[in-house]
């Protein structure tokens, strides 16, 4: 009984030990199978995701020079990534620019009465406060009265 590989799409005969086999024995397809399993596991299993993040962080701490060495050994890769990042930055800058009359600040507070609550007392001098602003009631605009 022949099946179709979920990675490459080619037909294959599953091994008798695993009749539900979904991937052929090609090493690229097996790599894809493991990649998809890991992707699904990271998405659905919080414990796996947390442990994976801790392991990655520990590895990065033990190998601090890895990415610098990798970029030095693969200059074409580093140059390509640098160019792509510059393009992404330009696209972001271009999307922010707009005519003055059209754009409004994203976090504009509506006119109204606000309560200020002191949250932190860690400033160097007593003149500066970090405050939390919460809307209590909106004051009607002059034309609404």
Task: Give a quick set of tags describing it.
145 residues; alpha+beta; two-stranded antiparallel sheet; two-stranded antiparallel ribbon; 14% strand; elongated
Question: TL;DR?
Answer:
With 145 residues, this protein is α+β, with helices and mostly antiparallel strands. The chain is 45% helix and 14% strand.
Element order: H for helix, E for strand: EEHHHHEE
Number of domains: 3
> In percent terms, what proportion of residues is strand?
5-15%
Shape: elongated
Spatially, the strands of the biggest sheet line up as: 1-2
> Which residues form runs of ≥5 with pLDDT under 50?
none
Alpha-beta content class: alpha+beta
Considering DSSP H and I runs of 4 or more, what fraction of the residues is helical?
A: 40-55%
Question: Main sheet, how many strands, which sense, barrel?
Answer: 2 strands, antiparallel
Termini distance?
Answer: 80 Å
Rg for CA atoms: 28 Å
- DSSP helical segment count: 4
DSSP, total strands: 4
What integer is the average pLDDT? 82
Blueprint (SSEs and pairs):
Blueprint lengths: L2 E2 L6 E2 L14 H18 L1 H17 L3 H8 L1 H22 L16 E8 L9 E8 L8
Antiparallel strand pairs: 1-2, 3-4
Helix pairs in contact: 1-2
Please describe what this structure looks like:
With 145 residues, the protein is α+β, with helices and mostly antiparallel strands. 45% of the residues lie in helices and 14% in strands. It has helices at 27-44, 46-62, 66-73, 75-96; strands at residues 3-4, 11-12, 113-120, 130-137. Strand 1 and strand 2 (11-12) form a beta hairpin. The chain is elongated, with a radius of gyration of 28 Å. The model has no long low-confidence stretch (mean pLDDT 82).
């Amino acid at each position: 009984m022949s099946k179709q590989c979920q990675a490459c799409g080619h037909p294959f005969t599953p091994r008798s030990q695993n009749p539900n086999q979904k991937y052929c024995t090609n090493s690229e397809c097996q790599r894809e199978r493991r990649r998809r399993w890991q992707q699904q596991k990271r998405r659905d299993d919080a414990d796996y995701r947390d442990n994976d993040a801790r392991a990655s962080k520990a590895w990065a701490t033990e190998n601090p020079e890895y990415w610098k060495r990798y970029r030095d050994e693969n200059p074409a890769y580093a140059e390509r990534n640098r160019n792509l990042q510059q393009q992404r930055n330009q696209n972001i800058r271009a999307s922010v620019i707009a005519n003055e009359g059209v754009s409004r600040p994203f976090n504009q507070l509506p006119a109204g009465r606000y309560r200020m609550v002191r949250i932190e007392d860690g400033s160097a001098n007593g003149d500066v406060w970090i405050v939390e602003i919460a809307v209590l009631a909106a004051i009607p605009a002059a034309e609404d009265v």
